[in-house]
Write a structure and sequence with these properties.
The protein contains twelve helices and eight strands. It is an alpha/beta fold. α2 runs parallel beside α3, α2 runs antiparallel to α11 and α8 runs parallel beside α9. The chain binds 3-hydroxy-3-methylglutaryl-coenzyme A (HMG) and magnesium ion (MG). This is Hydroxymethylglutaryl-CoA lyase.
Length: 301
């Protein structure tokens, strides 16, 4: 359990995509800079999706361009953006993207609500993106939403998740991020799902993307670590949510994950004071205190 864990920071994308308060490009760039300075080198910074669907992610091209100089200064810094189709890929590449993420769902109901197509149609949209990315030397991460339950279709079978993970892997995704989009999972269910996927794909190439709606995310992450998963998606301050996932709240908070890992003797390389300052700064912009337990506890000191 003590080997390295890689945290993929979601704050500037998942964290802000469902916020009512507009956040300027300058503030989004500053958010990314502060996260990297705190030690979070892999950051999802935006999404090249329809601005009618997700206005919060408009101008992701400017954000990506705005953070590009960080890559020259900070060794290993890597910025991800979501792309749902070739149109998104074109725009992401024009802004300099070197890592893109496609996003599918394990349930038909969520696929339709989120990206307006069936699961099979979404795979057809991803095929040219992955083919072009391969030719361009661009890495592609693959998400699967609703791996532990869907707001529309209910229970999701682990086999459905595993089959879709294999499809994304075979298309060329280097990592499959498994999303408990509505945060309904519990540890044994998380284990069962991860075992099903891990039976088909290398566990080293799986990531856990757990929203914390029911307060289960840390327990689920621990359960997943017991299964050998070593990549964790998290958002500073526990920000996040998806407008197409009714009732869902934010991602597991990065500071909660860091506190747990450091307490277990896992070195994260993340500076908690800087992370807390960043979390508080963004909370100030959004006009409310961070929801994370660790931020609340440290702020009360
Ligand atoms: P569609 O309606 O099926 O697509 O939308 P379309 O090709 O028919 O185009 C419709 C309009 O969208 C057109 O514009 C296109 O130009 C435009 P109009 O003629 O109406 O002015 N369009 C685009 N604009 C910008 N960038 C693009 C793009 N593609 C088409 N790439 C589409 C399909 C996917 C575009 C749409 O449904 C959409 O943008 N949905 C938003 C999905 C989204 O961002 N959801 C949140 C992120 S996913 C998530 O949070 C889950 C995750 O965190 C994991 C987890 O927690 O489970 C990753
Ligand atoms: Mg999410």
């Amino acid at each position: 359990m003590s080997d390295q864990i890689h945290i993929v920071e979601m704050g500037p994308r998942d964290g802000l995509q469902n916020e009512k308060t507009p956040v300027s490009v300058e503030a989004r760039v500053a958010f990314v800079e502060a996260l990297v300075a705190a030690g979070l080198k892999t950051v999802e910074v935006g999404a090249f999706v329809s601005p009618k669907a997700i206005p919060q992610m408009a101008s992701s091209d400017q954000v990506l361009r705005g953070v590009s100089q960080i890559k020259d200064k900070v060794k290993g810094a890597e910025f991800h953006v979501l792309v749902p189709n070739e149109k998104g890929y074109d725009a992401a590449r024009a802004a300099g993207a070197q890592v893109v993420s496609v996003f599918a769902a394990a349930s038909e109901g969520f696929s339709r609500a989120n990206i307006n197509c069936s699961i099979a149609e979404s795979i057809e949209r991803f095929k040219p993106v992955l083919a072009r990315a391969k030719a361009d030397g661009v890495k592609v991460r693959g998400y699967i939403s609703c791996v532990l339950g869907c707001p529309f279709d209910g229970e999701i079978k682990p086999k459905a998740v595993a089959d879709l993970a294999v499809t994304l892997w075979d298309l060329g995704c280097y990592e499959i991020s498994l999303g408990d989009t509505i945060g309904v999972g519990t540890p044994l269910k998380a284990k069962e799902m991860l075992r099903a996927v891990g039976a088909e794909l290398p566990v080293a190439n799986l990531a856990m993307h757990f929203h914390d709606t029911y307060g289960q995310a840390l327990a689920n992450l621990y359960a997943g670590m017991e299964e050998g998963v070593r990549v964790i998606d998290a958002a500073a301050g526990g920000l996040g949510g998806c407008p197409y996932a009714p009732g869902a709240t934010g991602n597991v908070a990065t500071e909660d994950v860091v506190y747990m890992l450091e307490g277990m003797g896992v070195k994260t390389g993340i500076d908690m004071d800087r992370l807390l300052a960043t979390t508080n700064e963004v909370a100030g912009l959004l006009g409310r205190p961070p929801v994370s337990r660790v931020a609340s506890a440290l702020n009360a000191k």
